[in-house]
Amino acid sequence: MAKNDELIGLSLAEARDKLKAKEITSAELTDAYIAEMEAGRDLNAYVLETAEQAREMAKASDAKLAKGEGGAIEGVPLGIKDLFCTKDVRSTACSHILDGYTPAYESTVTSQLWRDGAVMLGKLNNDEFAMGSSNETSFYGPVTNPWRRNGDDTKLVPGGSSGGSSAAVAAKLCLGATATDTGGSIRQPAAFTGTVGIKPTYGRCSRWGIVAFASSLDQAGPITRDVRDAAIMLKSMAGHDPQDTTSVDRPVPDYEAALGQGVKGLTVGIPKEYRVDGMPEEIDALWSQGIEWLKAAGANIKEVSLPHTKYALPAYYIVAPAEASSNLARYDGVRYGLRVDGKDITEMYENTRAEGFGDEVRRRVLIGTYVLSAGYYDAYYLKAQKVRSLIAHDFRQAFSEVDVLLTPTAPSAAFGIGEKSDDPLSMYLNDVFTVTVNLAGLPGISVPAGLSKEGLPLGLQLIGRGFDEETLFRTAHKLEEAAQFTAAPEAWWRS
Amino acid sequence: MSVDQNTVRHIARLARIAVRDDELEHLASELNSILDWVEQLGELDTSDVEPMTSAVETTMKMREDDVTVGNMQDEVTRNAPASEDGFFVVPKVVE
Predict the structure, then answer these.
(1) Which of these is catalytic: A107, A111, A133, A161?
(2) Measured between alpha carbons, how far is residue B29 from residues A129, A371, A391, A423 in Å?
(3) What is the ipTM of this complex?
């Protein structure tokens, strides 16, 4: 096996250990990933490669490692979703309206990764302003899923909005990636690509320096190859930040230490409302399989009810666009990004925003403006926030009886590029199992658990109590052990 | 509640997004299909429910009202499409 294949075959945890033991250097590991990143350009996972910066960071890491110093993930090469502001490195949220924007500051989450020694390979593609479930709304074009259906080379979506992150991790174009999740944007792409993705509790990671979509729902988290890697990355990303008033001041546990604890004595809830009409039989079968695995590992299984589940998506499509329309008011052609001239300042604003926003973003800004406009606030936004209370209450009730919930992550496997892009509502249904978690502010993790009949990865989701990521990690680790998910996509993009 | 073309023109104006007349019909139908779908929330009686104001129960944090960052005019204006002497330049607003 070629040296590079050996290097990129290491998980984040393995690479970390070998770097610390000086069996490998960050320079050679980083070079191997730069080569993969360049060979994988057909996937369109990266929107900006920062190879030179990566080599410098790797060199600095090696100097520390040589002295027996360095942070928790010293020398580990990562990809960064373009939604994160990175100092002096173009950050556009994959929107035309942020053309050429190079922040003068670093997001808190990425600064913590650099503090702990990580190396940045580049910026990863995402749906424009993270609005989408397929990465097709990006100004830089769609990302192609490294996975294909058996005997079929149709290009599939990698999920969204963190589609560059999920594709890059699945294709081994980085050791792990940052991502964000407003309605499912970490977990659904993880499920579509056979990777692990965790959205932590709202407030666990600072939102400072992350381009805002819907502020009461947005959370950062990692996408990685396995559960241990996710635990390692989240530990670095999480923590209190005085610059985000919604960030919560409580200690960050050692998530990796939770992994070996098993699930004996835990009660796993199965929410009956997640058995939705028209769910493919294979997803239902995978879910049942997951229940059997956890039962065999010593967990108690209990059916629970979350009666307001079906109202989560409609509530989300009021709350998220409303908050987006406010957050995106800042893109006015004055302070950064694109400007399109007009005969006066108002026309300049209107022309800039017409050209700068793609169709899906425009649709959501218009919906949000409408539901917040005079006379409609109570009927829409206030109503949706009340429904949110009901959904949060459902979870509280369930968690008085169980420790963790098990559900499918997404209602289907990855679909073809262009298959759903003409129908916003059918696209929105991708988030049916994930969006409840954002509305209630809870943590959720997606774990690859099996393959569809067509040979595509499928994920199972675990939902936990607020700030109980440790129970998620230990349960996810058991699921991973039982599923033995070793399938990998053929590296067709290298040829 | 159904959105007609005039309403679309009005909200596009509020959102400061230029919309061509020939886009209005299509946009109205898209917005209506989304608004019709969210109407199902009306099935729920929420008269005794408090709206959620925070995803995590927390008391609003306070801090001293001190200046912590500043003196970075160059950094603040360096991404502007047009700037001069540390100011943002916009089309003339007053006649």
Answers:
(1) A161
(2) 24, 16, 29, 12
(3) 0.96
Token pair for A36: 């993969």
Chain B partners of A217 at a C-beta cutoff of 8 Å? 55
Nearest-by-CA chain B residue for A365: B15
A335 reaches B (C-beta below 8 A): yes
Interface of B with A in 47-76 (CB under 8 A): 49-56, 58, 60-61, 63, 72, 75-76
A242 and B63: CB-CB below 8 Å?
Answer: yes
Tens-place pLDDT, residues B5-63: 999 999 999 999 999 999 999 999 999 999 999 999 999 999 999 999 887 777 878 88
**DSSP conformation class of A98:** G
Contact A259, A474 (CB under 8 A): yes
Put simply, the chain B residues between 7 and 36 with a CB less than 8 A from any chain A CB are 7-8, 11-19, 27, 30-31, 33-35
Name which of B52, B6, B47, B39 is nearest A376 in CA terms: B39
8 Å CB contact between A320 and A183: yes
pLDDT of residue A224: 98
Instruction: Flag if A369 and B15 touch (Cβ within 8 Å).
Output: yes
Contact residues, chain B, for A347 at CB < 8 Å: 18
Could you state, in chain order, the average pLDDT of each consecutive group of 10 residues for chain A (495 residues)? 87 98 98 98 98 98 97 98 98 98 97 98 98 97 98 97 98 98 98 98 98 97 98 98 94 96 97 91 97 98 97 97 98 97 96 98 98 93 97 98 98 95 86 97 98 98 98 98 96 89
Would you say the C-alpha torsion A332, A333, A339, A345 has a positive or negative sign? positive
Using alpha carbons only, give the angle A22, A26, A32 rounded to the nearest 5 degrees. 120
CATH number of A3-265+404-494: 3.90.1300.10
User: How far apart (Å, rounded) are the C-alpha atoms in residues A366 and B18?
Assistant: 11
Task: Give dist(CA A62, CA A474) in Å, integer.
Answer: 32
Across the strands, what pairs with A463? A405, A444
Distance CA A297, CA A406 (A): 14
Name every residue whose Cβ is closer than 8 Å to that of residue A165 and which is 6 or more positions away in sequence: A79, A81, A124, A126, A177, A178, A179, A186, A189, A223
State how far residue B23 is from chain A, nearest Cα, in angstroms: 11
A161 is catalytic: yes
The answer to whether the predicted template modeling score (pTM) of the entire model surpasses 0.95 is: yes
Q: Which residues of A touch B91 (CB under 8 A)?
A: 341-342, 344-345, 348
A77 touches chain B (CB under 8 A): no
Q: What is the phi/psi pair of residue A188, to 5°?
A: -65, -45
Q: Would you give the distance in Å from CA B61 to the centre of its chain?
A: 25
Which residues 200-259 in chain A show a CB within 8 A of chain B?
Answer: 201-203, 216-217, 242, 245-246, 248
Interchain CB contact of A318 with B (< 8 Å): yes
Per domain, the residue ranges of chain B are 5-41
- Check A81, A123, A199, A235 and give the catalytic one: A81
Distance CA A148, CA A140 (A): 22
